[in-house]
Structures are given as C-alpha cells and as structure tokens.
Amino acid sequence: MGTEVSTAGQDTKIGQSMAETDAVLEVSNLKKYFPVTKGIILRKTVGQVQAVDDVTFTVRRGQTFALAGESGCGKTTTSRVLLRLEDATAGEVLFRGKDILNADKDLVKEYRRSVQAVFQDPYSSLEPRMRVGSIISEPLMATGALPKKEIRVRVEEVLAQVGLSPDAANRFPHEFSGGQRQRIALARSLASSPDLILLDEPVSALDVSIRAQILNLLKDLQDQLGVAYLLVAHDLATVRHMCHSIAVMYLGRLVETGSGEEVFGNPLHPYTKALLSAALPSHPRIQRAEIELPGEVPSPLNPPKGCRFHPRCPVAVMPQCAESLPELENHGGSHAVACHLARSA
Amino acid sequence: MSEVVSEINTLRSATRSSGQIALEIKDLKTYLYTRWGVVKAVDGVSLSLRDGECLGLVGESGCGKTMFGLSLMRLLPRPAGRIVGGEVLFNGEDIVKKSEAEMREIRGRQISMVLQDPMTALDPIFSVGRQLTETITISSDLKGPALLERAVELLRMVRIPAPAERLAAFPFQMSGGMRQRVVGAIALAQEPRILIADEPTTSLDVTTQANYLRLLKSLQERLNLTLIFITHDFGIVARVCHRVGVMYAGKLVELGDVEDIFDNPRHPYTKCLIDSVPKLDKRVTRLATITGQPPTLHDLPPGCSFRPRCTEAGTHCRPDQYPDPAMVGDRHYVRCWLYQ
Ligand SMILES: Nc1ncnc2c1ncn2[C@@H]1O[C@H](COP(=O)(O)OP(=O)(O)OP(=O)(O)O)[C@@H](O)[C@H]1O
Ligand SMILES: Nc1ncnc2c1ncn2[C@@H]1O[C@H](COP(=O)(O)OP(=O)(O)OP(=O)(O)O)[C@@H](O)[C@H]1O
Ligand code: SF4
Ligand SMILES: [Mg+2]
Ligand SMILES: [Mg+2]
Fold first, then answer.
1. Atom in ligand 2 nearest the alpha carbon of residue B60
2. A290 and B4 in contact by Cβ < 8 A?
3. Which terminus of chain B is more solvent-facing, meaning fewer CB atoms within 10 Å of its CB: N or C?
4. Of B35, B42, B67, which is best to mutate to test ligand 2, by the most ligand atoms within 8 angstroms of its C-beta?
5. pLDDT tens-digit profile of B135-175?
6. pLDDT single digits (tens) B234-276
7. Residue A75 C-alpha to ligand 1 middle, in angstroms?
8. Interchain CB distance below 8 Å, B235 and A238
9. What is the ipTM of this complex?
C-alpha cells in the first residue's frame, strides 16, 4: 500500500518510478524565500525569510497527508505555493506526473480544477454578498465545462454530500452557523470533482461539538470519492485521527516524515518527541513526562546554522548539530528523520 | 510511572479537601436584557470552591462561561447584563450586594480575571512595564526602583526571558505566548486569592500552551490560588483541573472530580463532549457527534434544554420542569431526568 513518503535528499531527482505510482502530488526540494527589504524608494534586500526550505513529500490518491508543526513553521506558505498563489523560489511540483510550476495554460486550468482548498476561517473565506449557490459554482464557471442547468444540478449534489439542503443555495453565508459555513466551503471545493483538497486548519475555528461533524464528513467524503487531502493542522490528535502520512515541520524544513503509525508510534526526531509530549492528555490519569523546550521558535529570517532545531534541542550533544544541516534519512519503511543523533543511533 | 501518577492524585485530593472554602456561589442568575429578549446566560448555578483548588468550566460556545466569570468580577456588559438572583459569598460577604466602590477594592486584589482575548487585555499604546506598574500601584505604595523591581519580579515569575529589558517593550513587539504571560502577570500583580482564566491558551501553540499551563499550575500551587479555568478543551481540564463543571445553556449540568467525570461521565451531553474529541492514545474510526446546535438562551422551554439534541431522551424527561441536581457519586452531581 502506498503510504511511502519520498525521502529524497537535495541531490536525488525524483524519477519516472514515482510518477507511475498512485501519487497525486509530488513535491520535491520546494523552497519559498521571502525577500526582506529596507528603504522606501531604493528597496534594498537585507535578508530572506526562509519560510519553506527544501521540502519533499508525496500525496497519494485517496489518502490524507498532514503537515504538522508550530505557528510560523511554513505550513500555510507551502500550501499557498501549491495553490500557485505564491511563486516557488526553487523546487519541483508534479501533479499526476506533470510539472506544474512551469505549466502551460491548459495544464494550469486542469490543475485549478483538480486542486481545491478549504481554509481555517469559515467567516471570512466566503464572499458575503454572494448567494451560496454562486459561491459553490464559481470554480465550475471558471473552468467553463458545464452548461448552466447542469451546474445547478451539481450544486445540489454537493450540498447534499456535505449534508445541507438544496434551498441553502439561495441563501447568503451570514444566514449560516460556523459549522454550516465550513460545509459550504467544503461543498465549493468538491464542486469540480477535485483529486486533491488542501485543508488549512479546517476545524480550528469551529466549536468542539461541530469539529467532530466536519472531521467525520471529511473522512466519509474521502471514502466515497477517493479524494486526497493535504491537511495542515497544529492539533496533533486531529492529525493522528485523520492522516495516513505525516510530515513534521520546524522552521521551514521537514524534520520527520512517515506513516501515522511510524511517526506517532515511534517518534525519532527530538522535536517530534517534544511536540508529542506537550500534547494534552485525554484522561487526567495520563500525565506524560513533558519535554520542556527552552526559548521560543527562532525567526526564519536568519535561521540558526546547523540543525535548525539545535539551539532548543534537549539532546543536541554532537558537534555536527551546530555545524551541518541534517538531511532526511530513511529509518525503515517510509519513516525518515533529519537528525544527526538519530542517524548515529 | 503508576507510582508517580498515584502520587499526583494523592497530592490533588490533599489540596482539595484540606483547603478553606474560598468562594461559595448559590443559585446565581445573570440575565442579559437585549432587544431580542432576556438572555438567561447564567441560570441558577451553585458551587463552592476551596483555597488552592482548580475548577475547569467547559461547554460549547455561548453557553454562558464568560458571563459566569464576569459575574464574579461584577464586570457584566452594560447596560444589558444584570445579576438577578443568587449569592456569591466571599470572605463571608455577598459580592452581589457590594457597591461599585467596594468592588474596586476586591477586583484585582482578591478576585482577578484573565480576559478571553489577550490582545484586548493589553493596551497597544503603552509599554508592558507601564501597564504592569500601574496595576501594582492600585493596591500598593511602591514607588521608584522598588516598583520597577516588583514589575521585573512579576515578569520573571511568569518566565519572561530578560524581564528587566522587556519592561520597555510594547505588546506588538512580543509573541503571542509572551503577551499571554504578561496578561497573566498583570492579573497576578496584586496577589489575588481567586483567579478566573477565560480561555487563556486558545491562540497558543502546543509547546507554548504546555509551558503556560505548567506555569499556571505551579503558581497556583505556590500561591495557593483558587483557579477557575474556562475552556472548551477537555485536554486542558485533564491536565490542570481538580474538578470540572459542564455548562449547557446557562446551567451547570454536571459537576464532579476530574477523574470521576472522565471515568464516569453521566450527563448525555458530557459523554458526547468527551467522545467527540480525537485522542492521541485512543483511536476510533468515527467520532461521536452532537446533532443540532446549542439553543439561543432566551425563550427556553421549561424542560431540559438538551432534550432536542439528546440521544438518551425519552418519556422520562418531563417537559414541564428542569431536572434538579442529583448526586451520583462522591461530590459528583448531574442534572438529567435519567438520574431523578
Ligand atoms: N508574504 C510574506 N512575506 C514575508 N514573510 C512571510 C510572508 N508570508 C509568510 N511569511 C513568513 O513565513 C513564515 C511561515 O509562515 P506560514 O504562514 O507559512 O506559517 P504557518 O506554519 O502556516 O503558521 P500558523 O500555524 O501560524 O498558520 C513565517 O515566519 C511568516 O512570518
Ligand atoms: N454584550 C452582550 N449582549 C447581549 N448578549 C450577550 C452579550 N455577550 C454575550 N451575550 C450572550 O450571552 C450568552 C452567554 O455568552 P458567553 O460569552 O458567556 O458564552 P461563552 O460560554 O463564554 O462562549 P464562548 O465559548 O464562545 O466564549 C450567549 O448566548 C451570548 O450570545
Ligand atoms: S434529561 Fe433527558 S434529554 Fe436531558 S440530558 Fe437527560 S436524558 Fe437527555
Ligand atoms: Mg498557517
Ligand atoms: Mg467566552
């Protein structure tokens, strides 16, 4: 079963073999640097925010790939680049084997249809002056594939899929609750029958009782339609519940990747271990030994030399930690870790 | 591992049963008079808290958690909010009957609150040091270097790195986690006996949240604070609280010791809430859900307000009367017709 995650390092090219599998999206060595400028008239670049640095992963058909990590680690930037809302600084993104960063118009159109997104905030992500029906059919209009009548049928179909009644199409977003609005956003993303939906914190703005409904709905839709998800979330329990594979990000880089079982069952990177130890218990009698991380996440502008985690790492004992950047290395199965200590162990 | 755990548990119960009663709330009713009608935000809540005890207050958005906290501070939104019934006994006196001048003596010094939104709790145009020293001078005569020293001490207490240098910083120059800790320092500046923390960690990262909770817990133990922790996260309750109160539509529908509530939730709503959260250590393919939405808090019919969403509702649920609290265990009560 294809839960395998590519562990290619900087100089490994992803070849034909990967493209032949059930991969929907293959991301290799993706970088997104934001220039930091000074001065108003003569803008001078004074530095680079390395928001996403050398990120490699594969999303497979019908599966959920999760990007987890703390605020500012580059999760949203990664998904924005994948949505082509930002230009990549370097790297390659293959969509069903085709290069999408240097694609022609037709391919971009096809990609826009096949890759949709749902964002965190169900209050601001829907255009308030548009009726729900128009909001949902917008991605369909853009591709211009369907006649009007069929579009209406399709809108009703996706409304039913997300558990809303057909008359919702005639109403405005403000007439719905937060959970219902997230369903509308989901219906919109489903309208063009995408292969992949990017979910950026899809439930974190919702009330507890409604989160469960949306998470169940997402799973059901995946089972029925075979759609793949790229899930961005910081709540580890939600990630664990949803994902087939996961990548843990720290300061723009992937520090650990693997299947859910591999990473949650046997975390190898010290950051992953700390993150898991800090997760809240599900019962008061479970009191985990917490691994306390000193300091705060440093800025991705001038990230630390060597392993980016080393200034806060509780076990950084080797001289390499402060000197050279560890690459993701395979630790059996699809499990890969970027840590000098894990390698020598 | 299990030894450590039992030690923690003994420690918990020791604090719980030995402390003096710090606060006793009897049948508190806080209503909001709005254009759409009377919102019964807190509708007959009773509970008592001991020194050094931490109570978690959970429930869906809009169930009245914040209004409950604001009632204890007598800081209800004006002119809509009013306490219309009940007592809040603190030091043998009823807070509900206090004048505004008397409340100013109590607020901050005796009972303090960390408001839900840390951005609004800090004034963006004043430095952290100024806001902190202003709060300290409300209840002390400290001046000059001694005042600054106290401010630095408070920042150090909430583990702000380089506290002396930070005094000059403005809120926007700090990370979310640091701002949250500054708000905590201000709330603790006058060494209150009771601290109400309203969702203080919702905007924080996992590791920052873990740090903050550990800090709050150790301060609480060291200062023997009584803590009311408002949250919708059962994980936080499991991590820091001794007791849990579950609120639904203005009423406390279940109250008990934290282990008891997790082992033996009785109210159908509590069961659903606990089962609807994904858990790292217990995997399920589907999560439990609560159908429908919480009711609006005006024009509520007299019976159990959870009934339209309840999977265990039946002929036992009388439509004409709200179920009274029924004891279902040691210091564990529930308001549901199943237990009458
Ligand atoms: N347009 C931009 N210009 C400069 N820096 C940016 C820009 N967008 C994002 N960044 C920076 O890139 C880094 C990664 O940001 P990103 O939004 O991807 O993080 P995230 O992992 O999604 O965090 P969160 O969990 O808070 O949403 C941050 O340091 C952010 O400040
Ligand atoms: N200023 C106000 N005027 C009128 N009604 C209000 C006001 N503030 C709150 N309410 C109402 O009072 C009820 C209780 O609100 P409260 O803020 O206590 O809920 P909460 O449990 O704290 O919710 P949340 O988890 O969203 O913070 C809600 O129904 C709300 O709509
Ligand atoms: S009283 Fe009835 S409706 Fe209300 S929670 Fe109990 S069983 Fe459910
Ligand atoms: Mg983000
Ligand atoms: Mg509130």
1. 25
2. no
3. N
4. B67
5. 888 777 888 999 999 999 888 877 787 888 889 888 888 77
6. 999 999 999 999 999 999 999 999 999 999 999 999 999 999 9
7. 8
8. no
9. 0.82
